[in-house]
Amino acid sequence: MIQYPQIDPVAVxxxxxxxxxxxxxxxxxxxxxxxxxxxxxxxxxxxIAEDQVDDLIFYAALGIILGGxxxxxxxxxxxxxxxxxxxxxxxxxxGMAFHG
Length: 100
Known about the structure:
This protein has 2 helices and 2 strands. The chain is mostly helical. It has one domain (10-93).
């Protein structure tokens, strides 16, 4: 039988706060995109300004968080979401890593 590694999804625990590997990946990806976007914005004849890159990364991060939670609530919340619509605001119940 093939042995699969058992990787803990929590990278770091600081008391009641847990930082997950996928969270570090989101942050790393957004930081890299921000850095690369600002580098490209500094090029001559760039169609985007550096401050526009900052805005783009902010709205992308907001869209990732909101989209992940809304998608999770709609796909996995089902009937309970209609019974309790405020449940969509319970961010601690998941929504960023539900596929895989």
